[in-house]
Amino acid sequence: MSSLFRHIPSVDRFLQDLEQDRSLAGLPRQLLKDLVGEFLDLCREEIRAGVVKDESVLTFAILAARAGAYVRARSRPHFRRVINATGVVIHTNLGRSILAEEAVAAVAQGCRHYSNLEMDLDTGLRGSRYAHVEKLLCRLTGAEAGLVVNNNAAAVLLVLDTLAKGREVVVSRGQLVEIGGSFRIPEVMKKSGAVLREVGATNRTHLRDYSEAIGADTAMLMKVHTSNYRIIGFHKEVELPELVALGREKGLATFEDLGSGNLFDFSSYGFMPEPTVQQVLKSGVDVVTFSGDKLLGGPQAGVIIGRREYIERIKKNQLNRALRIDKMTLAALEATLRLYLDPEQARRTVPTLVMITAGPEELRARAGRLRRRLSRALAGLAAVTMKPGFSRVGGGSFPEQDLPTTLVSVAPAGMDVESLRQGLLAADIPVVGRMEDGAFCLDPRTLMDAEFALATEAITAVLADGVK
């Protein structure tokens, strides 16, 4: 065994070889050296375990290829691009919305150069970062004022902390939602210092339930839009205009957490009714919050809009500084909002809207092109077929809405579909799809035409490696 250790080539020999590898250009030398050291430790472990028993497999010519593969695999960034072939448009695990090209360009510009992030160019004095998006938000929604924080949970927390800390907030029991990661409205409210006063039953809440709960300690009436689930059957909830009227009568603020709020009306595309931000504000509600990276199709952000007297109080809350957004988010959000000045332009250019509104015929045609490409590449490796299926909006939006699509199914001939799935997750650019009926399925709704070649290359590599 000891003689085998002596046949392992030196670290320097591998470094000299790998430093000529263009795919590793720019990799810090110390990181490269550390990874080579890890690879050689692995070789030594194989000798100790009896996996390697012959010096012939320890030649540099044989180990160099293994070392290169090892270093490339472990030097990849941990946070990296993946290909979404699941058909879930706003996929939380995969980063939610893809930004429009205009938003990407704005972020690059803001990162590459200094900016007027907090400078008023009219006066040369310090300005507000909210000024970059506040007027746009008001123009698009009809709000009197607005601001943006780092996500919608933060927006809800900030509103409650500012307007209801130490006092009661009346909410329907049927609206005490939980969002991804087990974050729940009651816990967010508790953190804010507000006191939850839940009313009604799980399936039915009446206006009188709110009215009877109002007392000296009541600060606010709150409505939570249940965008990620629906209660059907024997069900009743108080409509927002009724709640607003009750608030006005009792001198109380009204607040709606709209969740995955949207500025685009999807009803003309056959979608189930879903209130837009504009429609909600027309009810007279005082404050509304919603996400920036869901149906809006922008960056992660929590938008707070409404009546000026309340928004100004929220802006002055010291917690606001801890929750504020950075220049990259502001740049992306402003560019995204500008597209909504022309709703049809937004539908054509905001990727989230493009994918959601893609029609069945368009998707079938794109699936056909993908199937033909895969069939040519995977001849003898897999059976490639097409079948009808459904996509999902995702992100807690339109939970009951099935989006008709055409799936491309890859049924491996030389390996099981789970091995194919795992192999695709380990690819240089991982491909995430779904498994149905013993096949790996790709949905063209979220798989862009420009990604067909990449997905085909990854699938071919995994299947070809499996038959070696």
- What profile does the largest beta sheet have? 7 strands, mixed
The oligomeric state is single chain
Mean pLDDT: 92
- The N- and C-terminal alpha carbons lie at a distance of 30 Å
Would you give an account of this structure?
This protein has 468 residues and is α/β, with parallel strands linked by helices. Helix content is 42%, strand content 18%. The mean pLDDT is 92.
Features:
468 residues, alpha/beta, five-stranded mixed beta sheet
List the helices and strands and how they pair.
Elements (H helix, E strand, L loop, with lengths): L1 H5 L4 H8 L10 H20 L11 H16 L7 E2 L3 E3 L10 H12 L6 E2 L4 E2 L4 H11 L3 E5 L2 H13 L3 E5 L5 E2 L3 E2 H8 L2 E5 L7 H7 L4 E7 L15 H11 L2 E7 L17 H6 L4 E5 L10 E5 L1 H8 L3 H5 L3 H13 L3 H7 L1 H6 L3 H18 L4 E13 L8 E10 L4 H9 L5 E2 L1 E3 L2 E4 L9 H15 L2
Summary of the model, kept short:
The protein is α/β, with parallel strands linked by helices and 468 residues long.
